[in-house]
Write a structure and sequence with these properties.
Its main location: endoplasmic reticulum. With about 525 residues, the chain is of the alpha/beta class. Helices cover about 55% and strands about 5% of the residues.
Length: about 525
Amino acid sequence: MWRRVYLFLVLVRLYFALSPSYLHPDENFQGPEVIAGQIFSYPVRLTWEFTSVNPIRSVFPLWPVYGLPMLLLRWLWIGNGNDGEIPPIAVFWTLRVLMFALSFVLEDWALHELVQSPRHRRVAVMLVASSYVTWTYQTHTFSNSIETLAVAWSLVLIQRIVENKQRSSLFATAILAFVVVFGIFNRITFPAFLLIPGLRLIPHFIKKPFSLISAILSALLAIFIAIYLDTTFYTDHSVTWSYLFSHPTITPLNNLKYNLSASNLATHGLHPWYQHILFNTPLLLGPVALLLCFPHPSLRLYSAISGVFVLSIFQHQEARFLLPTVPLILSSVQLPKNKTHLRIWAGLWVAFNIIFGVLMGVYHQGGIIPTQVFLSNQPDATQAIWWKTYSPPIWLLNGKNEVLKTHDIMGMKGPLMLREVSALATCHKPSSSATAYLEEKEGTYLIAPLSATFLDSHTSNDSGLHFQEVWRYRRHLNLDDLDFGEDGVWATIRRVVGRRGLGAWRVTKDCAR
């Protein structure tokens, strides 16, 4: 019975992987968009992490995770006799399927190795498979999702090394060292999860020093490859050996320096030290947080504790930073032994994950990706103004961004937004056909959530601006448009949920005025 339920949950995970929700701009701008600009001819927009004087993001982990699949996809595309570039939306969905496969294979496999008891292992795998975090965050292209897999397999390798008393485990320690370097260049928070588990390796290295030598040599090789790739990526000219050793680009060091500055973190939002413990952990775990009083002591639990402790030191704390702790904690809890209590808890767990799964996996900024595909097919689109949404990934415009300029004004006040739109709008040309505008050479589009009531009085075309709605995607919720203080709780929820959706208006103006 449990195998059938597990298979069903795997299909649920695949469904959410193929849903176009958009959890955070970083899932595009810190990964796929960067590598897509290297492999394909898509014009891309690099964020400040990659364009600052001291860049803080490494391309070393991006190449094996995103670059190799893109190269393989391009090879298959060309090998089948296709002309031109692969449509970027095909690359997008390929990466989503890839993240699903990595989660399904590597994360679940790691749990099978880490949890020794068959009965406890079954519960752990089912909890992880039924978590909305696994369905959504883990199937998106986040560096945190990759970090989750790297942490899990580091723990697997540590367990294998410690438990193998007969051999020196030279190969396992070399692989572990490479994974650790990969994890650090992926996210500098990675070592936080290995502080306590790593202590178990000290007696092993004392007894078998060749294992330590193997780990050091492997780590040095990985560091050299990472620094070479980053230096080459961030240097305009060819990199010689002398330049590499005199001007190396060490992104984890730059990242650490940046995050140790409170003024830098203030631009992203400062949080109290207890943000992770009191708010972010319950947000990710839901009813499981009620079971943390009596967990199974394990290497996994100690890894999660050390990670939460270290991450709480930094003042900028987002829930996704704790993704590596989710499978570790879910595989360390004990379910209620009382059958009545277990049924109540199970009901809460199912309801919690269905609600957050649909919210985050389907509706959260869910119209951005489909709207970009829509704009890429609009022959007249030359200006796109995005208001009250996340930043759109321009690499999905399929080359349209060579003529289409994207304006991201998500936090701008309504009157200022109208001024921006008016400055970019083309002249209004009355026509009897609703699609006659497609034959024009230029066109300005405003993309905004339908819940933005400010637009109501303007889209009725009672001013000098003319708004023609040409696209609507209903499965979109804008949770950044909540205004409980001014509108009240119920009125705000009714507006945001009842008027869910993302719309695109073609805007023109009366040039005679």
